[in-house]
Amino acid sequence: MELTRDPLVPDDHDEIKSEELAALEREVDGLKTALGSRTLIGKAMGLIIEREGVNETEAFEMLKTMSQHSNVKLRDVAARLAKEAQPTGKEEPEEAPT
User: Fold this and answer.
1) What's the whole-model pTM score?
2) How far is 81 from 11, CA to CA, in rounded Å?
3) Which domains does the chain have, with CATH numbers?
């Protein structure tokens, strides 16, 4: 039995599918990065709130100012603050495999 080609499916169907898959994989990677950044920023804000006795808005503004004055990305400033807050010899626990 010979398979007939569906006239509604373009000839480059497989190529389109692989391009869509690659785009979706890039989007997922971007979302994972954004989620990780958000977590770090949240930790840094919590540290600032605890140390400075400010609210969330003020903590974010302080974090943003540190980023701008040091010309370092906000997530990198947040990561540095979170790392510096770890007790000596302690590492941030690794994420569980997904």
Assistant:
1) 0.60
2) 53
3) 34-83 (1.10.10)
